[in-house]
Specification:
By secondary structure, the protein is an alpha/beta fold. The strands form five sheets. Strands 14, 15, 16, 17, 18, 22, 23, 24 and 27 form a nine-stranded mixed sheet that branches. Helix 4 packs across helix 8, helix 12 crosses helix 17 and helix 15 runs antiparallel to helix 16. The radius of gyration is 27 Å and the shape is elongated. The N and C termini lie far apart (78 Å). The model has no long low-confidence stretch (mean pLDDT 90).
């Protein structure tokens, strides 16, 4: 027996629609689609289970119908209302007279049905023929984008037409709400190396184009990350068995590395949010190639832990595995597992991975510096650079972000220590941004759980060119978020030798901000739980080399007191630190 794949899936408050198979370009097609009937049925079931007054209205006016007959009756009525007025329908069919006599209640039903549809996270995709290079064509990009726009306009048109035909008048206010999809993707099957135990991955389609309707608000189950990424000594085929019909692959450029990030459709909102964080890899990076990193997010198979990874030395690939669970329904697991694997690869290449932020800053008086601020989650590294950005109008003529959370230090051809990034975007705490900033950038943002502690924002902040260029490091600072400023603890102070410096960085002290399951003053090896502790011996050797070379070459190494972890200084602490950093750049530039 041949089982036909459904053109849509409704799972965990998400609607995932194969628009190539359920294409609707007229109100008739939309209202006759199985998806529309399914949504109506789910809505009726919902109001019935709640004892809603709208359902009481339906029962009172549809006494001749059983519950399972109501959906078909209502769908037929809505189809008629898409092309006829209420009065015309009564003339044509007296069966609708009773329910159409209660226009206000029926109008409320339509409004709530519309809101019910919009309460889902909605995704559309079109899958191109295998190896067609369909998704590479700008013409097909335009068609895909236009299809998404047409779908949104069609849903709005049907909703408004049905409402107007029922009430008999036009509204005075029109709100262009995002009624179609929230996110979309153009998919293709790509020939990549998937040998041995990975052969089951070859049929999973790759995302070649993503589309987002910002501002987008998502509500994942969790709002913080907990636990560690543990290494396993064996990877079996059984661990990574999956149904390719339920999976997608986001091919990401993570710095110079290529990562195939596979995710189960239940986590599609988080998976597609990666497009605000990582550059999508080009055809030449993935066609016939094997990746540096693989991540499989949402596995239902038995695993040694919820978040584990394996180093496949035969293929020279790092493989991350994350169990299918509501406990990992948080974007931080996507981001941090990917960056953990990136950091292990960097150590193998002789680079020093750093958990921090880096920016090129050019002052209006001509001074300039490339600044790296290192710190664990909630230390204030990104917040300090953001506060510095607010100085730009008066004092700074250019500020270019190289990385905002994770990067690496390497040696260029001139023997200088340079910084490389990993991401084109940032995943930042909404609470710690300067007031109003998130709303200034709302047109490109993805918000996650904005009503909860540790509310987050994913936003593009730089171009891929800058994160792989390699910028010489002038200043390297540790973000100290727990000490008050006084005579002994100035906003910024510099170390006189590599031993004192490396001791502070190795200790990795910070006041936890609730971004993970940690509380109080905690210590994390080199403020970097992502790769450094997993390869501690190699990391220690690499860190000693780079810190000694920084002092040999005159790079300023110190700490900056952001006070972000101290209550009452969440805004003023990073601002004061940024002002001191501005003065430091001025002093260093004037002395050169």
């Amino acid at each position: 027996m041949i089982v036909t794949k459904s053109p849509y899936v409704i799972t965990r408050r998400k609607v995932i629609l194969d628009y190539g198979r359920l294409y609707c370009d007229t109100p008739e097609k939309l209202l006759k689609s199985e998806l529309f009937e399914d949504i109506v049925d789910r809505f009726v079931e919902r109001i019935a289970s709640r004892g809603n007054s709208i359902f009481a209205f339906l029962k009172e006016n549809l006494t001749h119908l059983k519950r399972d007959e109501m959906t078909g009756f209502l769908v037929n009525l809505l189809r008629l209302l898409s092309s006829h007025t209420a009065e015309e329908i009564v003339v044509m069919n007296n069966d609708y007279k009773q329910i159409l006599s209660e226009k206000e209640y029926l109008y409320e039903f339509i409004e709530e049905l519309y809101n019910f549809w919009r309460s889902f996270e909605r995704f559309i995709y079109i899958e191109a023929p295998q190896r067609s290079r369909y998704a590479k064509s700008s013409l097909h990009h335009s068609k895909f984008i236009r299809s998404n726009e047409e779908f949104k306009d069609l849903v709005l048109y049907v909703y408004r037409t049905v409402s107007e035909n029922l009430i008999g008048e036009n509204p005075r206010v029109y709100r262009q709400l995002p009624a179609g999809s929230n996110m979309g993707m153009l998919l293709e099957k790509v020939e990549c190396k998937a040998l041995g135990i990975y052969s089951g991955l070859k049929d999973i389609p790759f995302i070649r184009l993503s589309l987002t309707e910002p501002p987008l608000i998502l509500y994942p189950v969790m709002n913080k990350r907990k636990g560690r990424f543990e290494e396993i000594n064996e990877l079996t085929e059984k661990m990574i068995q999956l149904n390719p019909d339920e999976w997608f692959c986001f091919p990401a450029k993570v710095g110079e590395l290529i990562a195939f990030i596979y995710f189960h459709r239940d986590f599609i909102s988080l998976g597609l949010s990666l497009s605000n964080l990582f550059e999508i890899a080009d055809y030449d990076d993935i066609d016939g190639k094997s990746p540096d990193i693989m991540l499989l997010f949402g596995l239902n198979n038995p695993l040694p832990g919820d978040t584990v990874f394996y180093e496949d030395r035969d293929t020279d690939t790092l493989v991350g595995l994350i169990r299918h669970s509501e406990d990992v329904d948080y974007f931080g697991y996507f981001k941090k597992m990917t960056l953990t694997l990136h950091n292990i690869v960097m150590l193998k290449k002789g680079r020093l991975p750093v958990h921090g932020a880096m920016a090129y800053i050019k002052l209006k008086n001509g001074g300039e510096a490339n600044v790296v601020i290192i710190g664990d989650s909630g230390a204030g590294k990104s917040e300090t650079l953001e506060a510095l950005r607010l100085l730009s109008e008066d004092h700074i003529c250019e500020m270019r972000i190289i990385f905002d959370d994770m990067g690496s230090l390497g040696i260029n051809d001139d023997g200088k220590i340079v910084g490389y990034g990993t991401e084109i975007g940032a995943f930042v705490r909404l609470d710690d941004l300067q007031p109003g900033y998130a709303y200034e950038e709302i047109d490109r943002s993805i918000f996650m759980n904005p009503d909860k502690t540790n509310a987050r924002l994913i936003i593009p902040i730089t171009r891929y060119h800058h994160i792989v260029k390699g910028y010489p490091v002038d200043i390297l600072l540790y973000a100290n978020n727990y000490e008050q400023i006084n005579e002994d603890h100035p906003p910024i102070d510099f170390f006189s030798n590599s031993e004192d410096a490396i001791s502070v960085f190795r200790s990795g002290a910070r006041l936890a901000k609730g971004t993970t399951d940690e509380k109080g003053l905690v210590h994390t090896y080199f403020a970097n739980p992502f790769g450094a502790p997993q390869r501690r011996e190699k990391h220690e050797e690499t860190a000693l080399f780079y810190f000694r070379k920084m002092f040999e070459t005159g790079i300023k190494v110190g700490q900056i007191r952001t006070r972000l972890g101290i209550e009452g200084f969440e805004q003023t602490g990073p601002r004061d630190a940024s002002i001191e950093l501005f003065k430091t750049i001025e002093d260093i530039s004037s002395s050169q």
